[in-house]
Amino acid sequence: MAEPVFKSKITPYVFISWILAAFGGLMFGYDIGISGGVTGMDDFLIKFFPRIYERKLHASENNYCKYDDQLLQLFTSSLYLAALVSSFFASKSCNLIGRKPTILMASTFFMAGAGLSAAAQAGWMLILGRILFGIGVGFGNEAVPLFLTEIAPIHLRGAVNILFQLAVTIGIFIANLVNYGTSMLHPYGWRVSLGGAAIPALVLFGGSLFITESPPSLVERKEKEAGKAALKKIRGVDDVDAEFEEILIACDIASKNKHSFKNLMKKESVPPLVIAVCIQVFQQFTGINAIMFYAPVLFQTLGFKSDASLLSSVITGLVNVGSTFVAIFAVDKVGRRKLLLQACVQMLISQLAIGVILHVHLKETGSLDKGLAAAVVVFVCTFVMSFAWSWGPLGWLIPSETFPLETRTAGYAFAVSSNMLFTFLIAQAFLSMMCHMQSYIFFFFSAWIVIMGLFVIFLLPETKGVPIDSMVERVWKQHPVWKNCFKGTDDSKNYEMA
């Protein structure tokens, strides 16, 4: 039986909707990039972390330990702890009031966090601002990738979803530029950097008023006519009957399964849940956020001066943005698995090379010579490059497309919360790990990259070109390992919606 053909064309309205929604990623990326730069600014350290500033002034201090401070790490990591908790509330919000209002709430929390952080006079204000940022990130990272996946035509689903990650990388790059500029604004440059987070949040706020709600979300909430009208609007054609019928079937099945979190415990839900959680954990254990959070701090540890370290972060940020375009153009042609496996090889070589250079040449005191320091920057760039076209964007894409509708928001909440939990752990532990493990920290991440590659080879199916509501029959039941989760079940029709 031939697969139904879903007609669509890209209109200016739908293209603008993609871009505006993707600002949720820019908001997230700006925060990732801004925190590392701010923690390397002397004015910021003098006001909130004077002990670290004093330690930094002593040239004989251990290179690997000069920034080892739990409170400083809490400044970065507290956001992700808040995002972890809020992602479950965001899941409920997506179900009850829709993706669009949830995106609106994300931008509101983020603007509040930007205002409080920029005005902070004490440590508790700084941390509370980060928590507000975290709630915004939790809501945005839950709603935006789901929204993009649900409004994207099937042949562009991967590319459209990756707009979120592209926006994350652009946000990181902009943050690095902002930090480079504000580092020269004494003594309040750090306030400008933190307050600047309000700008992408304001754009997302306006965008959330402009975009339409996703058709599955409308139909799920018994607004069938509005759902069909929205589908016509985002597809740019009137003939949407085949696709709308699939959405109706999916929503009908979902309506019979009210307890989405409980349904995740069924063995039929094991494959997408395991994939969603593991891919998020692996994304963090590549070591990418350790590099992105603390790039300026890391480069200072290698012997770069403050301005030079920020400039090096700008370079890695530019590489990150450019390489994400590779994913946009390749993901729906090459497929998910090939991109992930190629990146594992490139990331492994880069991490091992950095580890060897530091182990041999960077002692507890002193610094690398210019040639070796430049080589480290190059290997950091090749690492960031491969991550940007693979584990970065696909970490958000794959979980958003593999759950059936009845468990989609709940399953994706587990994916987001897993990401935030391990981002929190890495952010909270990295500087201490670098102090105690020194160059061996890069070998630690290298070992994880090997495990990730084996995971892709044996457990990750290819989802390129498969309708999101046809994953069970065409992906999970055909996989040599995961098909065992569906043996002996008579209700597989509840998971097949096409």
From TrEMBL:
Compartments it resides in: Membrane
UniProt main location, coarse: membrane
Alphabetical UniProt keywords: Membrane, Sugar transport, Symport, Transmembrane, Transmembrane helix, Transport
InterPro entries from the UniProt entry: MFS_dom, MFS_STP/MST-like_plant, MFS_sugar_transport-like, MFS_trans_sf, STP/PLT_plant, Sugar/inositol_transpt, Sugar_transporter_CS
Residues of the Major facilitator superfamily (MFS) profile domain: 17-464
Membrane spanning stretches: 12-30, 71-90, 102-121, 127-148, 160-178, 190-212, 273-297, 309-332, 339-360, 372-398, 410-434, 440-461
Designated name of the protein: Major facilitator superfamily (MFS) profile domain-containing protein
CDD domains: MFS_STP (cd17361)
GO cellular-component term (any): membrane
Pfam families cross-referenced by the UniProt entry: Sugar_tr
Gene3D superfamilies: MFS general substrate transporter like domains (1.20.1250.20)
Family: Belongs to the major facilitator superfamily. Phosphate:H(+) symporter (TC 2.A.1.9) family.
GO molecular function annotation: symporter activity
Protein's membrane topology: Multi-pass membrane protein
